[in-house]
Amino acid sequence: MTHLYAIALGSNRRHGRHGSPERVLEAALSALTAAGVAVTARSPVLATAPLGPGGRRFANAAVLAHTSLDPPALLDLLKRIERAFGRRRGRRWGARVLDLDVLLWSGGRWRTRTLAVPHAGLRARRFVLDPLVTVAPGWRLPDGGTVRHAAARLTRARPLHRDRIAVGL
């Protein structure tokens, strides 16, 4: 049985062999393909601001991919690829040569101690939603709405509350 996944890719550190963060993402896609994951759609690489004290801008992208791996097996593969690129456990919001995350799965929800699908931060992170909406705008999220709706909610202008407006100044 083949499953469809949405996978996020991110990098904000150069790699000794692959070079810039953008090229790291290209090399990571090649590693996914070499491992038997069929990438069927890919977003453009977007430059995004770091979350937390990361300092450097990130290169972020999203792909749609087919594989027979279940979510924990795919996560294991992604972590192996990250380690092969030099990723080490460290600061939560620190610089990283490669970050790969399972965002969505065609089977809906999956939750264990080490994996949550949909990804826990999906609805709150533009650096995830902006690339994802280019490859899967109509993907229906298990908790309602689509990727397009989630992106629109996150980026829409919000009115000021009346108690925050200085009247007569």
Compact summary:
The chain has 169 residues and is an alpha+beta fold.
Describe this structure in words.
The protein is an alpha+beta fold. It has a single domain, classed as Alpha-Beta Plaits, CATH 3.30.70.560. It is 28% helix and 22% strand. It contains four helices and seven strands. Strands 1, 2, 3, 4 and 5 form a five-stranded antiparallel beta sheet that branches. A two-stranded antiparallel ribbon has the order 6-7. Strand 6 and strand 7 form a beta hairpin. The chain is globular, with a radius of gyration of 17 Å. The mean pLDDT is 86.
Count of structural domains: 1
CATH architecture term = 2-Layer Sandwich
The radius of gyration computed from the alpha-carbon positions, rounded to a whole number of angstroms, is: 17 Å
Q: Strand share of the residues?
A: 15-25%
Main pleated sheet: 5 strands, antiparallel
Any low-confidence stretches, pLDDT <50, length ≥5?
Answer: none
Write the element-wise H/E pattern from the N-terminal end onward: EHEEEHEEEHH
CATH topology heading:
Alpha-Beta Plaits
Helix content: 25-40%
CATH superfamily: 7,8-Dihydro-6-hydroxymethylpterin-pyrophosphokinase HPPK
The overall pLDDT average reads 86
* Overall 3D shape: globular
Provide the CATH top-level class.
Alpha Beta
N→C terminal distance: 65 Å
Number of helices: 4
